[in-house]
Amino acid sequence: RGFFNNYQGHGKPQTILILKMKNDNTIIANEFNNIFRDLVNRCSLYIVQEDGTLFFPKKPTPTALAVGALVSGVWLASNELAKQINFQESLASRLSFDSSDSGIHILPLKTKSRLYFMAVIYNKVVNPGLVKNQVRILRDGLARLDLFNERITEKKASSVLFENISDDEVNKLFSNIGI
Questions:
Q1: How far is C-alpha 70 from the chain's CA centre?
Q2: I need a labelling partner for 153 at 20 to 30 A (CA). Which of 56, 109, 162, 165 fits?
Q3: What is the model's pTM?
């Protein structure tokens, strides 16, 4: 049984935010490990805010930071392109780039107050369709919880992900992951 069946919340509203963040990350990691139990070593989970800031994992590597920015950017760009061709169906249901055994599957994760993007990168799996189904199960379960309500990154009125950044700096930022 996963936490969706027996989740009781985090106690009183006065819970220290740092403890809540630790608990939330533990809940997300545990449920990912539970749902993807046979594929944990072949899949990586990222939850990203619209501005490209990582929500999960909480201790990101340079690769995770780059993935967060790219996931947000590709989702938003794809939806804007779809608007340009009067695409009737919303891309808001899913976005995938894959081969027969590897890829990335991105889904929106809508909470009460905002939109996140949940991405799973998978490598050398036998059944990519199963991975995509497991991503949907995880997303639907997490969306029902209050994990995302208190930890919203404050945005400045004119904030941008990268301000005054040169092409060389962008290349350096993404060079460690082969992009």
A1: 11
A2: 165
A3: 0.69
CA atoms of 120 and 97, how far apart (whole Å): 11
Q: Which two tokens stand for residue 128?
A: 């990519």
pLDDT digits (tens, 9 = 90+) for 83-136: 787 766 655 578 889 999 999 999 999 887 788 999 999 999 999 999 999 999
> 118: number of CA atoms within 13 Å, CB side?
23
Phi, psi for residue 65 in degrees, rounded to 5: -60, -45
CA distances from 176 to 19, 92, 121 (A): 32, 30, 17
Residue 19 exposure: Cα atoms within 13 Å on the Cβ side: 8
Which pair of structure tokens corresponds to residue 22? 């630790």
| Separation CA 24–CA 127 (nearest Å) | 29
In the 3-class helix/strand/coil scheme, how is the chain assigned residue by residue? CCHHHHCCCCCCCCCCHHHHHHHHHHHHHHHHHHHCCCCHHHEEEEEEECCCCEEECCCCCHHHHHHHHHHHHHHHHHHHHHHHCCCCCCHHHCEEEECCCCEEEEEEEECCCCEEEEEEEECCCCCHHHHHHHHHHHHHHHHCCCCCCCCCCCCCCCCCCCCCCCHHHHHHHHHCCCC
